[in-house]
Amino acid sequence: MRKYYHRGAIPKKDNEGSSYIEYDDPVAFTAEEWAAGGKLQAEMYGQRLPNIRNLRVTGDYCEVFFSGKSQGYQIENGPFFQAGDGVCLYVGPEDEPDYKIVAVYPYRLLTLEVEHV
User: Fold this and answer.
1) Which letter does DSSP use for residue 97 in this model?
2) Cβ atoms 21, 11 nearer than 8 A
3) Per residue in 23-57, pLDDT tens?
4) What pLDDT, in 10s, does the model give residues 65-116?
5) This protein's superkingdom (predicted)?
6) Gap between the Cα atoms of 22 and 49, Å rounded
7) φ, ψ of residue 114 in degrees (nearest 5)
8) CATH, residue 59
């Protein structure tokens, strides 16, 4: 188990109309991390597999709904996770995230698949 930092993605537009992402303030969470592997992940990610990591997040969570559809998962006393958010695995919380969430799985413990950016 190790401490990591979640940074929520905030979509923005510049004054020329181009889209870009800013990241919210970092929120600490504890998780177990391991490299992606296995037949299923190899089929899903192909050549991208070496850039994928798995995180099993510690703590109770609940699914959050907006307008009747699932939008993400809130860890008790922790961050709100959804696809596209940033995660600081190998950089400090003050830096830009080095990984982004590509999938969230609501198993017994919340499990994230993250990809290096």
Assistant:
1) P
2) yes
3) 999 999 999 999 999 999 999 999 999 999 999 99
4) 887 666 899 999 999 999 999 999 999 999 999 999 999 999 999 999 999 9
5) Bacteria
6) 26
7) -125, 150
8) 2.40.10
CA–CA gap between residue 61 and residue 73 (Å, rounded):
6
Helix or strand or coil: residue 50?
A: helix
Burial of 6 from C-beta contacts in 10 A (0-12 / 13-18 / 19+): buried
Nearest-angstrom CA–CA distance, 110 and 117:
22
The domain tally of the chain equals 1
Which residue range(s) make up the domain with 111? 2-116
Short-list 7, 116, 6, CA closest to 57:
6
